[in-house]
Design a protein that fits this description.
FAD-dependent oxidoreductase; Glutaredoxin; 8-stranded mixed beta sheet; single chain; FAD/NAD(P)-binding domain; FAD-bd; RIFMO-like; flavoprotein
């Protein structure tokens, strides 16, 4: 067994709060020290917001769990200070192959357009991801940032009030109470917080189960995503193979609905399935086995007064498409800067309603794509199966049929069309950078655009004049001036100008476009700043 599962990363230590005469009030308390809770805490601490993360665990999650991380979350992790560690350790991949029976039907490439700092995807076990995030927390602590992780702290009761939440926490040394101006629940799909508050999911649970096996083996398979429909080794079902670091391979095998989960997880039942797939001559060792059920569900609202939900605690999708952890990080990216403005008194707390609107939009988009994938992978009628198989047969010979094959539409960043924070589009520019869109990267000599945008409001000018700084109602917006004269690759023009000769973009701290115009108009951009902070 990997030693990482046995080492406490944030062991229990007695907190001064446990000896306080009255419950201590904290600006932000986060429940859950998984990837989303840690990411949320780092985001806030880097902005100077005091945050306490509590978890009844003290180690990384057992098993690889989430393994596929897309380009957009890697860009977010760059701003959190741990993107490079992820990329250095992870397995980069950009080729996927689809098989039907024993035939390769076709392959596809996921490489983004050239001129991006980060790859399309990496594979990396969640336990490494969590370790790197905890390491980043320790770095911030050493720098004096206001962040603390409390392991062995289990939240057993929550009370909600108009201006705060109360928590009762159990520890190895007894229970104690604290208060939070803001409480963020990142405690996973089973979210005890959600249950304690009497909240629930809406959506679908699909009648199918998949076996996940992390297998340690020496194999000469390439670093590609292989997906099988109706393979000889798992007739009538599907299978997936992915490479991870350290000689670990992820194998997913569809099992069907009416199964005994505990029996199916036993090594004596798992190993024959894997040998049927890999061959009797391949030596391997089981590292982790689990069974999951397809679910596409979300909470009706992610904000409940002073309690906010993020990640799997707020929404669940089937794992094909890598939309779980990737969308959870986009939750934290959306919420962090808004909560900072509210805490600093620079925005009304109604700004947080836009977190609800925008991330529910993102969750619905993920659920739609995940549901479609699930329906294609696991057809519910003989007619649906015949149609699917016909599509696969056609895809082997005809390119037009390949987009109809759905083995998991892979994660892409969400565009917040219709957000109340967007200003009307006033630029005849590329659709990919319309208001609400995440900013695509651009090479700038030996550097890239996204690191220059950082995590603050930016006025991006391209061959246009504007003030170096615009301040509006407490919001400071700094200018980043670029020119296509220096655009040797043509990427800046293609991604931000199109046919327009010039452009001015208002970019939010989460690097989403809030407004764009062909030139700077002070009154209109001041109104756009107010709108982007929930004041219009």
């Amino acid at each position: 067994m990997n030693k990482i599962f046995e080492v406490p990363l944030y062991p229990y230590e007695r907190s001064p709060d446990q000896d306080a005469a009255a419950p201590v009030r904290h600006p932000v308390v986060i429940i859950g020290a998984g990837p989303i809770g840690l990411g949320m805490g780092i985001d806030l601490a880097q902005q100077g917001v005091k945050v306490v993360i509590v978890d009844d665990n003290d180690k990384v999650s057992f098993g690889s769990r989430a393994i596929c991380f897309a380009k957009r979350p890697l860009e977010i992790l760059d701003r959190l200070g741990c993107g490079q560690a992820m990329v250095d350790k992870g397995v980069e991949w950009d080729v996927g192959k689809v098989f039907f029976d024993d035939r390769e039907v076709y392959k596809f490439e996921l490489l983004p357009e050239k001129g991006h700092q980060r790859p399309a995807f990496i594979n990396l076990q969640q336990y490494y991801f969590e370790e790197y995030l905890v390491n980043r927390v320790r770095e911030l602590e050493a720098e004096g940032a206001p962040i603390e992780i409390r392991g062995g702290n289990k939240v057993t009761a929550i009370g909600t009030h108009p201006d705060h939440a109360t928590l009762e926490i159990d520890t190895p040394e007894g229970s104690y109470n604290i208060e939070a101006d803001w409480l963020i629940a990142c405690d996973g799909a089973g979210s005890p917080t959600r249950q304690m508050l009497g909240l629930d999911f809406v959506g679908r649970v699909f009648e199918d189960n998949f076996l996940i096996a992390d297998v340690i083996m020496e194999a000469d398979f390439p670093s590609e995503r292989w997906f099988w429909f109706d393979p000889p080794f798992n007739r009538g079902q599907s299978a997936l193979l992915h490479k991870q670091p350290d000689g670990v391979w992820r194998i997913d095998l569809q099992l069907g609905w009416d199964i005994d989960k505990e029996e199916e997880k036993k090594p004596e039942n798992v190993i024959p399935r894997l040998k049927a797939m890999l061959g009797d001559d391949v030596e391997f060792e089981l590292e982790w086995v689990s069974i999951y059920t397809f679910q596409c569900r979300r909470m009706e609202k992610f904000r409940h007064g002073r309690v906010l939900f993020a990640g799997d605690a707020a929404h669940q999708v089937s794992p094909f498409g890598a939309r779980g952890a990737n969308s959870g990080l986009q939750d934290t990216d959306n919420l962090g800067w808004k909560l900072k403005l509210v805490i600093d008194g620079k925005a009304d707390e109604t700004l947080l309603d836009s977190y609800d609107i925008e991330r529910i939009h993102g969750a619905d988009e993920n659920i739609l794509n995940s549901t479609r994938s699930t329906d294609f992978i696991t057809p519910k009628s003989e007619m649906s199966r015949l149609l699917r198989d016909a599509v696969l047969d056609l895809a082997e010979h005809y390119e037009f049929a390949r987009p109809l094959v759905n083995s998991g539409r892979l994660s892409v960043p969400c565009t917040y069309d219709g957000s109340p924070l967007n200003s009307a589009d006033a630029l005849d520019g590329p659709i990919k950078t319309r208001p609400g869109s995440p900013c695509p990267d651009v090479p700038l000599g030996d550097e890239f655009l996204l690191p220059k945008l950082g995590n603050k409001f930016i006025l991006l000018t391209i061959d246009a004049d504007a003030p170096d700084v615009v301040e509006e109602d407490g919001i400071r917006v700094e200018r980043l001036a670029l020119s296509v004269k220096d655009d040797k690759t043509g990427a800046l023009k293609e991604r931000y100008l199109g046919h327009a000769p010039s452009a001015v973009y208002l970019i939010r701290p989460d690097q989403h476009v809030a407004a764009r115009r062909p030139s700077f108009d002070e009154n209109l951009f001041r109104a756009a700043i107010r709108r982007a902070t929930g004041k219009e």
